[in-house]
Amino acid sequence: MSNLFKTFDDEFHFTLDAAADASNAKCKSYFTKEDNALEMEWGRGPIWCNPPGNEDPEPWVRKAINAAEKGATVVMLLRPGLNKTWFHLCLRHGQVRFIGGNDFACAECGQHIEFCAVIFGGWHERFTNAQSPGGKQRRTLDEVSGFGPANTILTFARDG
Question: What does pTM read for this prediction?
């Protein structure tokens, strides 16, 4: 997972980890559970946020949207929930990058885990570039659906 963070950090240069603790913080500045990040002002970023996996991500998504409306760029790592309201908010308000590959497996059960990174705010200029993070070319749906290389990133963005 640290390589994934590095890929995005190389693109965005994060200044805040909005959901961390002293043992896993990715940035010098971070909010812990005790800080209650959902009640804190996140500033203008760029902000990394990997919400706790055991919590409903919708409040985190709404907070990221709010921060983006105030000028921040927020990159949020999530497990896609195509039938969830919060995921539809991501599609409507952010750029969604689906991330797949064999490097992501559950430590407890060994099953393959899919992730997506959602970029809220400030990403329009980067999206016009023909490269995705790490200099990889954007992939087609066929390549991502199992016929392409591991760790493929597929990007979707709203119009306008």
Answer: 0.73
Other beta carbons less than 10 A from residue 17's beta carbon: 22
List of domains in the chain: 2-157 (3.40.50)
Q: Report whether 62 contacts 139 (CB < 8 A).
A: no
* 57-108 pLDDT tens trace: 999 999 999 999 999 999 999 988 777 889 889 988 988 887 765 555 555 5
CA pair distance 66, 93, nearest whole angstrom = 10
DSSP 134: G
Dist CA 77 CA 10 (whole Å) = 16
Q: Report H helices in the chain.
A: 2-12, 58-69, 85-93, 124-127, 141-142
Q: Are 118 and 68 in contact (CB under 8 A)?
A: no
CA of residue 155 relative to chain centroid, distance: 12
Within 10 angstroms of residue 8's Cβ, the number of other Cβ atoms is 21
Dihedral class, residue 65 (left if φ above 0, else alpha if ψ from -120 to 50, else beta): alpha
Tell me the backbone φ, ψ of residue 53, rounded to 5 degrees: -65, -20
Q: How far apart are CA 117 and CA 143, in angstroms?
A: 18
